[in-house]
Amino acid sequence: MKSLQYKFLCIPLVFLFVQINAQNYPCNYWPAPCPNATSISQADDWSARKGNGAIEQGLAFQRKMRNEISDVLQKTAKQNGWQVYQLTDEYFDGPPFQFINFANWEATPYEKRPPNEDHLAFIIVVNRDSLMLWRQWREEWMHRMEKSVNEQDMVALQKEDLKNTTAFTEGTIVLVHFGINPYHVTTGMEDGGQRSLIPQSALQVPGAFYAGMLINKEPPDRHAYEFTYKGYFFNSPASVATILFGNYQPKDSYNNWRPMFEKPFTSSAATLNGVKSIKCDVLQNLCAHIEGRPDKVKDVINKINWDDINSMMGK
Fold it and tell me: What are the boundaries of the signal sequence (predicted)?
């Protein structure tokens, strides 16, 4: 979970380095975040996922959604001279509530299944030249760090790392997350009481149930652009836009949304025993979070064809 209660911590003067050279980058996009190849490949392992409770129709639906959203983002990137790649696919094939045991979930046929949520994340490289400069600086910085022998040099390099990593990340990339039929939607950042921070301004997004922009008031620390445990949010980005499609219940006391389709799911029997009028392989709700520097986030929002996204609803 995100929190804006970060304090500056002394950075240990012990480092583990990996030699990086032009022929041996962790991925083609380094030092931007590399794709989570494991999660992406596991998402396509239908045999294993069926053993975890997934069904054919649900898996086919998730693949369709991934392909359609990828197509929209690739089209956007091509039109604007950007580059886009998938960062991760975070899915859960088991029962959506703790009050449903696995045996009952596994035995539930397609007609009675509620939706399973899936979370897709992408990185949009909005400035390729900046990515190359970032890479050059990072390689040079690592060489200087390896040769540093006194505490004064190390402290100076750590300060440079925080400053430049923040500047290059915010000037080079934007993180885009899509939640497919999500059961719990936050605004991407929380206070110390784990309540979602309320966006300060509204956004105009065609067809959206809600769209708002949250500006982070806290200065970045060295963990700001690392990922939370969820794998598709930054810890403390400069801004987050939250965009919702579909129907949602009123926000709860923690400023979070839950989908309207979830409202009758109050017990195992209420969730699994009835034939669903809208099947689990239909897009009922969609959330999007776009994270990064505010001007870059707004530019990405303005360039995405949201009519294409909205047209996926109910299908």
Answer: 1-22
Average pLDDT over residues 71-77: 98
Query: What is the extent of the structural domain holding 176?
Result: 49-310
- Residue 22 counted as domain residue: no
Which two tokens mark 290? Answer: 């776009």
pTM as predicted: 0.90
Would you state the structure tokens that stand for residue 223, as one six-digit string? 């963990």
Let me know: does 286 contact 245? Beta carbons within 8 Å.
yes
CA 228 to CA 186: how far, in whole Å? 13
Pairwise CA distance, residues 27 & 267, whole Å: 45
Burial of 120 (0-12, 13-18, 19+ CB in 10 A): buried
Residue 206 lies in a domain: yes
Model pLDDT for residues 267-294, shown as the tens digit of each residue:
999 999 999 999 999 999 999 999 999 9
How many structural domains does the chain have?
A: 1
Locate 315 and state its tokens.
């299908």
Decide if 271 contacts 262 (C-beta within 8 A): no
pLDDT in tens, 31-65: 999 999 999 999 999 999 999 999 999 999 999 99
43 occurs within a structural domain: no
Q: What is the C-alpha separation between 180 and 278, in angstroms, rounded?
A: 15
Torsions phi, psi of 213, nearest 5? -120, 125
